[in-house]
Every structure is written in C-alpha cells, then in structure tokens.
Amino acid sequence: MTLSLTTGPAGTRILGLGHYRPTNVVTNHDLIARGVDTDDAWIKSRVGIAERRWADPDETVVDMAEQAGSKALAASGVSPEDVDLVIVATCTMPTPVPGAAPNVATRLGIDSPGAYDVNSGCSGFVYAVNAASAAVLTGQARHALVIASERFSGWLDMADRSTCIILGDGAGAAVVGPSDSPGFGPVVWGSDGAQYDTVTIDEQSRFFRQEGQAVYRWATGEMAPVALEACERAGVAIEDIAAFVPHQANLRIIDALARRIGLPNAVVARDIETSGNTSAATIPLALSRMVERGEVPSGAPVLLLGFGAGLAFAGQVVLAP
Ligand SMILES: CC(C)(COP(=O)(O)OP(=O)(O)OC[C@H]1O[C@@H](n2cnc3c(N)ncnc32)[C@H](O)[C@@H]1OP(=O)(O)O)[C@@H](O)C(=O)NCCC(=O)NCCS
C-alpha cells in the first residue's frame, strides 16, 4: 500500500517579521544599584551589553509572543484565517505543560492551527523556522507563524554575576509562506550532546547556569565552518551576504565569528548591546529591528546562525522579507 503525499509551492519565504521588547529597560548601572557586584566597563568590554529589557512581573512568555506575532502578521499582510501552523520557540515557559503555541494562536485569532513549542535553547528559532518552511513547502500548511519568546529574567541567580548580567526578555516572529522560488537555503544543523551540561537550568535551584568559557570556546571555534557551509549549500557567495544575524550571546563571539567567516559586505547584528541575550528570540528580534531600520533590503540574503544549550546549532541562509 502507498499513501498520498501533499505537494506544495515551488519555494517558501519569510513574508514578514515582528518583534516585541518589554518597556522596562535595565542598564548595567541598574544592576549595580540592585546589588550585583559588577561594573559597566567590564560588562561592555567582556560581553558587549549596555542595557537589556526585563518583562514586568505579570508579563509572560505568551504575552510577548502575542505582541511579536501580531506585528509579524501585520507586516506580512497574511490574515489569521490563512495560517495553518503556529510554532513557538522557547525554553522559559513557567511550567513544561501547556506549551505556549495554542494559547498564542487563539489570542491572535488563528482558528485551530497545528500548534507546538520547540525547545532547542538559543538555536530554537532557526529550528522552528526551518520546520515551518518544510510544512509549507510540502503543502501541509498554507502559512506558518513562527515566534521565539523568552523570559529569562524569571530564571536568574542575582548572586551569580557571570550570568545575571547577560540575559534579557523579548520576542521575535516571522510569517512563512509560499513563493515562486526558494527563500530558504538548506539548513546546516548539528549538536554536541557530550557538552549537554554546559548550559542548563539547574534542577534544584531553578537558576540558569552556564560554563561560560566552554561555551565561548565552542562557539568561536566550531560555528564559523557551520556558517560557511550554510552559504555554500545555499549557493550564495560570502561577498553576497547582506546581513549576518548570529545568536546574540556575546559581542566578542559575534565579532570573532564575523572575522572568521569574512563577510565583506554584510551588516552584522549587534542587538545584544541594547537587548541582551534573549536566547531563542535573539535572531528574529535582531533581524526584525534591522529590517525596520532599513538596514537589510528586501530579497537580500541573510545568514542566520543559532547556537546554545544542548549544545545544538543551526545555520541557514534566508532571503529578507
Ligand atoms: C559568560 C562570559 C561573559 C564570562 O566572561 P569570561 O571572560 O569567560 O569571564 P570568567 O568567568 O572567566 O571570569 C573572568 C573574571 O571576571 C570576573 N567576572 C565575571 N563576571 C563578572 C561581572 N559581571 N562583572 C565583573 N567581573 C566579572 C570573574 O569573577 C573573573 O574574575 P577573577 O579572574 O578575578 O576570578 C563569557 O564566558 C561568555 O560570554 N561565554 C559564552 C556564553 C554563551 O555563548 N552562552 C550561550 C548560551 S546562552
């Protein structure tokens, strides 16, 4: 017996982006005022962050996802009735069940879509957007809404100055739909489960923990070849990459990767300076803000590079909406 397969369009594209940042700005000086033993110059020079946003006490992962998703829908011109799939990338829901996606979909007026969450730490958005593209490409969804939303401020040990200064809250979103030609290159993904315990939420304390130097070495040593392979497999020369949007973990990692990859003509995302590290949300948040500022022309090739907890990574070239 054989089963029927659906067929889809010739290609898929990101049709629109949106983002949300909480209104509450937390500067490095604010952290010092809260009793964190640190200084502004250390954070700026070692990590690259001047300020981050933290959600209000009653502002949730789902609230932020709804805001970003609503803006992405508006930017894409796709109406909620035409969305068949909602994926939320997050690792900071307050409890493991329920997931965020069905609730977000209902709030956005998307009636009964396929809906699920992806937890792949800081690389979650690239995994999720790739799954969305595959669903549209195979005719299983007309349009898909992908949102990454994180609320790390609820998981921080304020006595651990090497982690509490880094993380922020926020959300970014993309609508994926059909196009006449491919707007997603092949994803280059992988993982190193031998280092599974270098980035964790500790089971006992419920605090975020990371072995910063191990992750730093892994990211600066292993991720440039992933990015280069993503460009090669997409058939895009390095000189033609218009924007490089890596996970915003540390400005020194971003600069080191940009140097190693080459990228003579790319604008490099430095959203960490004012958003901090928002885990899965950094890539769509940074890209949405770059597009909003007019830094990335429509149709230009953009190199995405997610990496983090797992350790898991995913690199992919996409065309800007
Ligand atoms: C976390 C990170 C910023 C720490 O920077 P680092 O240079 O490795 O810092 P270290 O932990 O080795 O500490 C170096 C010194 O700075 C100090 N320090 C650490 N945090 C500090 C802070 N917020 N303010 C001032 N000093 C600080 C340490 O106490 C240490 O001092 P000592 O040498 O007197 O003991 C860096 O390792 C990093 O960004 N790693 C990658 C994280 C990442 O990519 N995560 C991805 C998943 S989200």
Commentary on this structure:
The structure is a single chain. The radius of gyration is 19 Å and the shape is globular. The protein starts with 10 loop residues before the first strand and ends with a strand. A 5-stranded mixed beta sheet has the order 1-7-6-4-5, with helices on both faces. It has a 5-stranded mixed beta sheet with strand order 8-14-13-11-12. The model has no long low-confidence stretch (mean pLDDT 97). The chain folds into 2 domains: 11-179, Thiolase/Chalcone synthase (Peroxisomal Thiolase, Chain A, domain 1); 188-319, Thiolase/Chalcone synthase (Peroxisomal Thiolase, Chain A, domain 1), CATH 3.40.47.10. Helix 3 (61-76) crosses helix 4 (101-107) and helix 6 (212-234) packs parallel to helix 7 (251-261). It contains 9 helices and 14 strands. The chain is an alpha/beta fold. A hairpin with a 3-residue loop joins strand 13 and strand 14 (312-319). The longest helix is centred in the last third of the chain and has 23 residues, at 212-234. Bound molecules: coenzyme A (COA). Residues 38, 42-43, 46-47, 122, 161-162, 165, 199, 210, 212-213, 215-216, 219, 249-250, 253, 277, 279, 308 line the site of coenzyme A. Coenzyme A binds next to helix 2 and helix 6.
